[in-house]
Predict the structure.
Amino acid sequence: MLKLTAQISIYTQDNKIVEFANIAECTITTSLHTLTDTCTIELPRKTAWKNNRQKNITDVIRRGDRIEVKLGYNNDNKTVFKGYLKSVSTGSPVTIECEDNSWLLKQIKVAPKYYPSLTLEEFASEFLSDFEYKMNDFNLGETRINGETTVAGVMDYFIKNFPVIFFFRNGKLYGTLASTMLIADEEVNTIEFKSGLNVISDNLKYTLAADVNVQIVAKVILQDNTKLEVKVPEDATDAGIRTYFFPECTTKSELKQRAQETLDTYKVDHMEGTFTAFGEPFTRAGDIVKFYDDDYEERNNKRFFVDEVVYRYGKGGYRQEIKLGTEIHG
């Protein structure tokens, strides 16, 4: 019989280690498309820690402490979250709000500055020397930082205005174009899921190629900071927008050709959505999942990058809500 088990370790700033396993609820959201992964833990105000001694947890932990969360069954726990305490409530139950290593990025101040031209690699070398990172050498073009902000604030601006994503995996910070992956040098697992076996429910949607309604926006920033853009098809209505940068292109005609080639990759039968699975097999954002369903053969043997995972642990059991990302062909 499977028994839910957890291990929470908090490393305080005065060199204490607080460990406990009795938690009421825990929700962790991790995604490739948001800078910050989050963790919320609810636990009794008086909880057993350090050889079952009862003590108010709020007396010994505080904002900025490091935390590691391990969840699983029968003490076969996997590390689901590492980060820092953002806030600790004083109510009952006690609620601990946490953020991953992006919390550190929010502590690094950035002064106003102007860059005639800036790449992700140049930005990282200037501000992220204390981090292990891997950046796509994407050219952001002319960049102006207005007003006092933080490294995280600048990266959020990049995410909103360029097709780039930033995420931590195994403590390493990645910066890449939203249409590519940069984690080949890390351990990426391929995990199989089957409806009715380790999949509890799903809202997956299968779309035929003829019904795909997508518009490709192709952009490039030339060396003189001239910005070129084309849309294919130009007259799309209610279409899903997909933005790509093609730094190798120098003319609109070249952009249009690349946009059409990219659109052709979307004009295939495809599947999207989320499914809910048990806590095992453990899956992380950036992993690859294979899906099978005896009732819907068109879903079978397809591979997808995982865009997002929400872990829910508590009275209702241990669940993973997995969001499918880009389908892997070939």
